[in-house]
TrEMBL record:
It comes from Marinilabilia salmonicolor. Its EC number is 3.2.1.8. PANTHER family: ENDO-1,4-BETA-XYLANASE A-RELATED (PTHR46828). Pathway: Glycan degradation; xylan degradation. GO terms for biological process: xylan catabolic process. This is endo-1,4-beta-xylanase. SUPFAM superfamilies: Concanavalin A-like lectins/glucanases. It catalyses: Endohydrolysis of (1->4)-beta-D-xylosidic linkages in xylans. Belongs to the glycosyl hydrolase 11 (cellulase G) family.
Length: 571
C-alpha cells in the first residue's frame, strides 16, 4: 500500500512519558505516545475516526472507521535483535490493514514489517526474494524502496524489509531474530534498532482489533517484560506419575494455579500445578501419544507451554499443529502456538522411544554399515519420504505432523538424498537435519534442494522446506575402506583449508592447517571469474570482512603447502 503519512510524533525531541500504572485501561483518541504496562506505546492517525485503549502489560485494543492511515502499537525501544513475541488477537479489519511486528533501524535507515495477518490486500505488492520458515509457518521476504517519504529521521529515501506469512494467523509466537537473520542472508542489512513493536495498521479502511495477549522477551523464553499485576504464587508442583519414560515440561501460568494433565493415549498419567514463573516439571509416563491438557480455565487463568523434552529430544509447543486450547480467529482451537487460553490440549505426537518400536528403523546392520538418522515432519500428515544413497533406496516411509527421528543403517555409498515423493493436497515436508555416524548435517546448510519453493518456482537451496516433489542432497557416504584410507592420509598430511560460516553475512573465517609457516596468497573471485579481493593468510584462523561485496556466489583460491584449495561460498 502507498502510505503518505507523517509519523511526526517519532521526531519530537521531548517525549511525554505518562504512566497509567494502577489503571485498568486508558482510551486515547488523539495522537499520543508514552510508556504503560512495561512497554512503550504509540497511537497515530492522519484523519478519520479511531481510538486506542491501553490494557495491562502488552495488551491493547483499537477501533477505526473511514481512516486515512492509522497505527496503534506497543513494544520496546530500542528493542533488539533477539526479541521473541507471544501474542493473541481478535482482528477484524474491513479493507486495507496489517497485524504485524513493526519497527525501524538506523545506520542504515530501514522500516521493517513481519506481517501475521492482513485485510483486503496482501502486502507489499512486490516480487519475493525468498522465504524463511519459522514458528510453524513460511514467510515470503520482500524489499521495497520508499523515496523521499516521512521517517524517524525526517523526509528520507529508505528501504522497507518485509516478511509476510503465506497464511494468515492471529495468535502465536514470533521469533524476530529468525527473520532478521534471513534478511541478512539475502543482503538486507539492518542497523541499530530504534524499536520493535506489535502493531495494528489501517489504511483507507475501518475495523477493530483486540490484542488480548502480547508479551515480549529478549532472552528467548517468551516471558512478559512487565505489566503483570500481582505477585508470583510460588513454585508449581506435579503429580509425577510412575511410567517408564522421563518427560520434562517447561510451562507457566498467567494467574497461578493453572492445572495441566499429562495424557498418554488420552489417559491421564500425571498432573502439573503451574506457578506464574517458568519452571521445568519432571514426570514419568508410558509410551504412546502425548497431549498436555489445560483443564481449569476461568478468570484470568491462561497457560503458556514452552517445550517438552523426551529421550533427549525437544519439541517446541509452537511447532505443534494440534492445539484445541489456543484462541484464534475468534474461537477456541487452532495451531502453532504456545498459548492455551481455553480448556483444551496441545498434541505433541507419539513419544515411543525408537528402541522400543520396530517401525522407526530400516536397513542392514552388517559389517561396515553406516547409521543415518533423518529428522523430519509433514505439515498435513501422510507425506512420504524416500531416502537414497548413491541412487539406492534405503528407506521409504510416511511422516506425521510432529518431528520424529528415523534411524536407517546401510552399507551403501554415495550421495544421500532425502526425497519428498507425494506432493499434493496441502502436503509439505520440513527436514530438520540428518545425522550420519553421529555427525549432524542441517538441511538449511545444503546447496541442493529441488523441492523448495523459491523465487516463484520449485528448486533452490539452503532451506529445510520441500513444498514441491523433490529432494534435498546431502554429502556422500564413503565406504569403510575409503574412510580408513582418508584417515591415514589425513594423519600423514595435515594440510587443510576450511571456511565458515557458509552462507556468510559480512565476516568470513578462513581456517588454515599447514606445515609451512606462511603467509599464503589468497584470492576471492566472483562468479564471473573476476578477482574481487586479494590478501595473505596465515596458519590458524583468518577473519576476512566482506562488507564491500554484494550478495552472490564466490570462490576462494588459496595455495598451502604446494596444494591448491578452491572453496565455493555464498554471500
Amino acid at each position: 500500500m502507498k502510505f503518505n503519512y507523517k509519523k511526526s510524533l517519532l521526531l519530537t525531541g521531548v517525549i511525554a512519558l505518562i504512566s497509567f500504572s494502577g489503571m485498568k485501561a486508558q482510551t486515547i483518541c488523539s495522537n499520543d505516545q508514552g510508556s504503560q504496562g512495561g512497554y512503550t506505546y504509540e497511537y497515530w492517525k492522519d484523519n478519520g475516526n479511531g481510538c486506542m485503549t491501553l490494557g495491562s502489560g502488552g495488551t491493547f485494543s483499537v477501533e477505526w472507521s473511514n481512516i486515512g492511515n492509522l497505527l496503534a502499537r506497543k513494544g520496546l525501544r530500542p528493542g533488539g535483535q533477539n526479541v521473541v513475541i507471544n501474542y493473541g488477537a481478535n482482528y477484524q479489519p474491513s479493507g486495507n490493514s496489517y497485524l504485524c511486528v513493526y519497527g525501524w533501524t538506523t545506520n542504515p535507515l530501514v522500516e521493517y514489517y513481519i506481517v501475521e495477518s492482513w485485510g483486503s490486500w496482501r502486502p507489499p505488492g512486490a516480487t519475493s526474494k525468498g522465504t524463511v520458515s519459522t514458528d510453524g509457518g513460511t514467510y515470503e521476504i520482500y524489499e521495497t524502496t520508499r523515496t523521499q517519504q516521512p521517517s524517524i529521521e525526517g523526509t528520507q529515501t529508505f528501504q522497507q524489509y518485509w516478511s509476510v506469512r503465506t497464511s494468515k494467523r492471529t495468535s502465536g509466537t514470533i521469533t524476530c531474530a529468525n527473520h532478521f537473520a534471513a534478511w541478512e542472508r539475502m543482503g538486507m542489512n539492518l542497523g541499530n534498532f530504534y524499536e520493535v513493536s506489535f502493531c495494528v495498521e489501517g489504511y483507507q479502511s475501518s475495523g477493530t482489533a483486540d490484542v488480548y495477549s502480547m508479551s515480549m522477551s529478549t532472552d528467548g523464553t517468551g516471558g512478559d517484560t512487565g505489566g503483570d499485576t500481582g505477585g508470583d504464587t510460588g513454585g508449581g508442583t506435579s503429580d509425577q506419575g510412575d511410567g517408564e519414560y522421563t518427560l520434562t515440561v517447561r510451562a507457566r501460568g498467567m494467574a497461578g494455579g493453572e492445572h495441566l494433565n499429562v495424557l498418554i493415549d488420552n489417559q491421564a498419567q500425571a498432573g502439573i500445578n503451574l506457578s506464574t514463573s517458568w519452571q521445568e516439571y519432571e514426570v514419568y509416563v508410558d509410551r504412546g501419544d502425548l497431549n498436555l491438557e489445560f483443564d481449569n480455565d476461568g478468570g484470568d487463568r491462561d497457560v503458556q507451554v514452552d517445550w517438552i523434552e523426551i529421550h533427549g529430544e525437544t519439541r517446541q509447543a509452537e511447532d505443534m499443529e494440534y492445539n484445541t486450547a489456543v484462541y484464534q480467529d475468534g474461537s477456541c482451537g487452532g495451531s502453532y502456538s504456545e498459548m492455551m487460553h481455553c480448556s483444551g490440549v496441545i498434541g505433541f505426537g507419539d513419544i515411543t522411544y525408537q528402541g522400543d518400536s520396530g517401525d522407526s528403523s530400516d536397513g542392514d546392520t552388517g559389517s561396515g554399515a553406516h547409521s543415518i538418522v533423518v529428522r523430519a515432519r509433514g505439515t498435513s500428515g501422510g507425506e512420504n519420504l524416500r531416502v537414497t544413497v548413491g541412487g539406492t533406496e534405503i528407506a521409504n516411509y510416511t511422516l506425521g505432523t510432529s518431528f520424529s527421528n528415523r534411524t536407517i543403517t546401510t552399507s551403501a555409498t554415495g550421495g544421500i538424498n532425502v526425497e519428498f515423493t507425494n506432493d499434493g493436497d496441502g502436503r509439505d515436508v520440513q527436514v530438520d537435519y540428518i545425522q550420519v555416524d553421529g555427525a549432524t548435517w542441517q538441511a538449511e546448510d545444503q546447496g541442493t534442494n529441488t523441492g523448495v519453493w523459491q523465487d516463484g518456482s520449485c528448486g533452490g537451496s539452503y532451506s529445510e522446506w520441500m513444498h514441491c516433489g523433490g529432494y534435498i542432497g546431502f554429502n556422500p557416504l564413503r565406504s569403510a575402506s575409503a574412510a580408513n584410507k582418508a584417515t591415514m592420509e589425513q594423519e600423514k598430511q595435515e594440510t587443510n583449508v576450511s571456511i565458515y560460516p557458509n552462507p556468510v553475512v559480512n565476516l568470513l573465517n578462513i581456517s588454515v592447517a599447514a606445515e609451512e609457516e606462511g603467509p599464503f596468497e589468497a584470492i576471492i573471485y566472483n562468479s564471473n571469474g573476476a578477482a574481487v579481493k586479494q590478501f595473505l593468510a596465515q596458519p590458524g584462523n583468518n577473519p576476512v570482512t566482506l562488507n564491500d561485496l554484494p550478495s552472490g556466489i564466490y570462490f576462494l583460491l588459496i595455495s598451502v603447502d604446494n596444494q591448491s584449495f578452491n572453496l565455493k561460498f555464498l554471500k
